Amino acid sequence: MIGAAQSFKRSFTPFRRRYAELADDLFGGRWRTADLPLTDDRIEAAIFGRAVLAYLCAYSPRALGVDIDDHAGQGPAALRAKYDAVRARFGGLYPSVVCLSPRGLHAWWFITWPMPTAVLHGQAEAKLHGLEVELRPTPTLALRIPHEGGLVDPGTLLPVRQDFQTVIADAPRYHPAELFNPDVLPAGQRANLAARKRRAAAARYSRTIAEAEAELYPILPGATNDALTRLVPLYRGAGLTEADAALRFAAMLAPFYAGELRDGARLRKRVHSFYLRAPDPKPRSVQRGLFTAPAADAVARAAADFRAKGQRGKRALRRGQVEGSCRRLAAGIIVWVDYIAAVRADPRQRGEWNYLYPYFAKNTREGLVPLPRATLRRIDANYSRHLPYLVGCGFLAPGPYAYVPGAGICRYYRVDLERFTGPGGG
Fold this sequence. Notes:
The protein is an alpha+beta fold. The protein folds into three domains: 4-181, Alpha-Beta Complex (DNA primase, PRIM domain); 185-275, no CATH class; 282-420, no CATH class. It is 47% helix and 13% strand. The protein is built from 17 helices and 13 strands. A hairpin with a 6-residue loop joins β1 and β2. It is elongated and about 85 Å long. The N and C termini lie far apart (60 Å). Mean pLDDT is 85; it is low at 279-292.
């Protein structure tokens, strides 16, 4: 059987670089932070009662801790009632581990895989709203390391007669959906994130849409193409479906209009063609100041050279067009690479991204960068036309991992920026 410290680390996922300790002083005892590693020896000293230590949780813990205290001193019956109320909020599921504390109980529910604290504690706070309990530990608030002599049975709250490792090994581990709801799973979180983005876009576009519709109404014969060009990209940017956009546009037509767009099928087809285009030119203009970056210029020249060697044809773009588009795409990717590096450097953000987008931490650790289609499309609506040139010239190299859109796994690339930033790279 593994040691007590290993059992604790695997199930409670503590932050290892800092801890808190209860130290005796003139006032009888006070918690203080120790900026020292939480070593195995220190963990076992706390478990077996040789020290009183508290731990902070990692940014993606495997355990949800709840501090249930009897602050008013109402006695065991009131404490049991509060404990049962907490358990009821989690569907009646008993905690995995319960330990006595000086003022009440500390309860932990183990989960089957790590979850970012923002997601885990956000869900738990919603469940426990109105109860006088506290979620601990967090990355900033510590909780006592459970000591073997204080462990109690989660059902009876009577002392257990087993050693620490056995109690932890036998403790139940819950699927997050059991404790919360299916929306807590990565797919649900991604859907919620997409919905929030759509709502934000709708709020941003609503005033512009109202102003454009007021200016264009009624849409007269001969003015439909201009109206489609102005309104449909706004509808898409606001998150309207193609069907809703067509209905909204149809309501703008003058009562006496009798042209082809009175045919619903024809109107939906025209709307669909607009939805295939970029909904908003703003992301492109945001990057415009970066197009003169030496690295982007060097990538653009190399991409144009690659196209010229084997991509000629009657419909091929002129060299200047290829350079301009590839410069824009390369500049946007360079900015995105810097953003991903900042995400990876922040443990909290890295944990959240890894939960939402599986293998993000592993793939970026290997030097790969995720390039989702939505991000590339925001940089350049015609990115797919020029992406092969960036691969061919060596700026991008596709990663070895499969693209699984339903699971939130996009395509990963290795970005060879050094080749284009040296003395010969512009």
